[in-house]
Write a structure and sequence with these properties.
The chain is of the alpha/beta class. The protein is 37% helix and 18% strand. The chain folds into 3 domains: 242 residues, P-loop containing nucleotide triphosphate hydrolases (Rossmann fold), CATH 3.40.50.300; 171 residues, 2-Layer Sandwich (Nucleotidyltransferase, domain 5), CATH 3.30.420.280; 29 residues.
Length: 501
């Protein structure tokens, strides 16, 4: 063999090695796409050490599917990169991949893992570890793949099963495997997957990735458990990773592989109401959103309310299925900025429990915070002489409530103008308020989504200034009242003295 032929042979071997070991080119140590730029991606991997269930809530084009495929490929082969800080499975384990449809799975996860049909082995899974015999029919006919095998470094094979969300919960019982959900799973299937992976012992793992195009769904609410939507632990078993990109915040950009020009083009193509979801991974808030703005326009970190701020609370009456909802707002008298700093949200709660929540906030503030409410006064309790709830709060619990103005469209306009003027803010650790805001929309002329705390926003925007008071205001009123009572007493005494003469 000549030197040139030998050189060609070596080049071909190197090219083939690179082609069928694509995973080695991902997350390099150096270069424009170096691993250090993908901090939240690394956080997702590392969280596998301590958390059984991990969710990537991500914007488009951030690499959420690639992350799941990368980790899955490591587990299937048992080959981990030197820099790996995530979980290392102790044995060859089977996996179940579930998605919305076979077609979507084939075009996303399966192609990322295997490469295109006819060229399997060029994807994330190393080519020489694939059992190609299990995929001959697929390669010949281009049909959907139902399963395949990967050789583990232990010498055993890992089975990978493919299914869709149309499968029944009972079908899960046939699997003893870890699970990868590509796109948001139905709650029933997710719960069954959690149960089945218990059989995997210390090697159990569940990975989920999706862009929340369906909004703040029941699945997402239950997963978050009321926690802020930021990268970090949700509970002992659950972890959330947020992947996003933002033209205005390049320091917290999880997609350095996208150029600024590409990002700008994407933003131009997407409708305005989709941009926060598509670029930042926020739950989609709806086409007819009543308060259409980015979350950071409204939600701010918690801080200690200064004593001179004027406070007011608003109560929206409820029982079941509608909750009793209360919002507490502090108003900066110097700037006019409203800050919602607390929330209360309960179904089938007796008035005494609701009143206790109000008293707790009064105790923290150091005075009785004025209250306003739905001007209807609440439902009539026929078991209590037909009195409205507003009257019951006044007489039974010494809570003075006043009916608020209740203009619907006018109230929306006032609140939205306050938001636009940066004068309506909400502390970012109030999950029920965030949830209602994200789904508060008008469709076909009707309000869509829960609106109980949103009603309180209107009541406060329209009526809050008339009733909000600071601790100093209350003390001043008491001084004036005490002085008046003293003057009245002095007057009465002089009159009594004259009559006795």
């Amino acid at each position: 063999m000549s030197d040139i032929d030998e050189l060609f042979a070596i080049t071909e071997i190197l090219e083939r090695k690179k082609r069928y070991n694509h995973i080695d080119t991902i997350f390099p140590e150096d270069g424009p796409l170096r691993r250090a730029l993908y901090k939240n991606h690394m956080a997702f991997f590392e969280a596998g050490q301590t958390h059984w269930v991990r969710l990537i809530q991500a914007s488009n084009q951030t690499g959420k599917s690639q992350d799941c495929c990368y980790e899955l490929s490591c587990h299937l082969t048992g080959i981990y990169p030197p820099w790996w800080k995530g979980k290392r499975l102790s044995r060859a384990c089977d996996w179940l991949i579930v998605g919305e449809t076979y077609d979507l799975l084939r075009k996303s996860i399966i192609q990322t893992l295997l490469g295109p049909v006819g060229d399997f082995g060029t994807g994330m899974i190393r080519g020489d570890t694939l059992d190609h015999a299990t995929m001959k029919q697929v390669e010949r006919t281009g049909t959907n793949i139902g399963s395949f095998r990967v050789k583990h470094i232990s010498g055993k094979f890992c089975n990978v099963y493919i299914n869709t969300y149309s499968m029944r919960r009972e079908d899960f019982q046939a699997f003893k495997a870890n699970v990868l959900f590509d796109e948001e799973p139905p709650p029933g299937l997710f719960n069954e997957a959690i149960t089945r992976t218990l059989t995997m012992g210390d090697d159990r793992l569940v990975m989920i990735n999706f862009t929340p195009m369906n909004g703040m769904t029941d699945f997402l609410k239950n997963f978050m458990e009321g926690k802020p939507s930021v990268t970090g632990p949700i509970s002992e078993d659950k972890h959330l990773t947020r992947l996003r990109w933002d033209l205005d915040d390049p320091a917290n950009d999880d997609a350095p592989h996208l150029t600024r020009g590409a990002k700008e083009a994407l933003l131009r193509l997407w409708p305005a109401y989709m941009r926060a979801t598509r670029s930042r991974g926020d739950a989609l808030v709806g086409e007819g959103l009543i308060y259409p703005c980015a979350p950071e326009k409204i939600f701010v970190p918690r801080f200690k309310i200064p004593d001179h701020y004027k406070r007011v609370f608003s109560l929206d009456f409820g029982w079941n299925p509608d909750p009793t909802a209360i919002a507490w707002v502090a108003i900066d008298p110097d700037t006019g900025v409203h800050y919602q700093y607390w929330e209360y949200y309960r179904t089938e709660a007796p008035l005494s429990q609701n009143a206790a929540a109000i008293w707790d906030q009064n105790k923290i503030a150091g005075y009785d915070i004025p209250g306003i409410c739905d001007p209807s006064g609440g439902k009539i309790d026929i078991n209590d002489g037909g009195r409205h709830e507003m009257e019951q709060y006044r007489t039974q619990f010494r809570i003075d409530l006043h009916g608020a103005k209740n203009a619907l469209r006018g109230g929306h306009a006032v609140v939205y103008q306050l938001i636009l003027d940066d004068k309506w803010k909400v502390f970012d650790d109030l999950p029920q308020t965030r949830s209602e805001w994200s789904g508060y929309a008008i469709k076909d002329g009707k309000i869509k989504g829960a609106d109980h705390l949103m009603d309180n926003w209107r009541y406060i925007a329209l009526t809050g200034h008339d009733h909000a008071k600071s601790k100093h205001d209350i003390e001043k009123e008491r001084e004036v009242q005490d002085l008046k009572e003293l003057q009245d007493y002095s007057g009465d005494s002089r009159e009594d003295s004259w009559m006795m003469q």
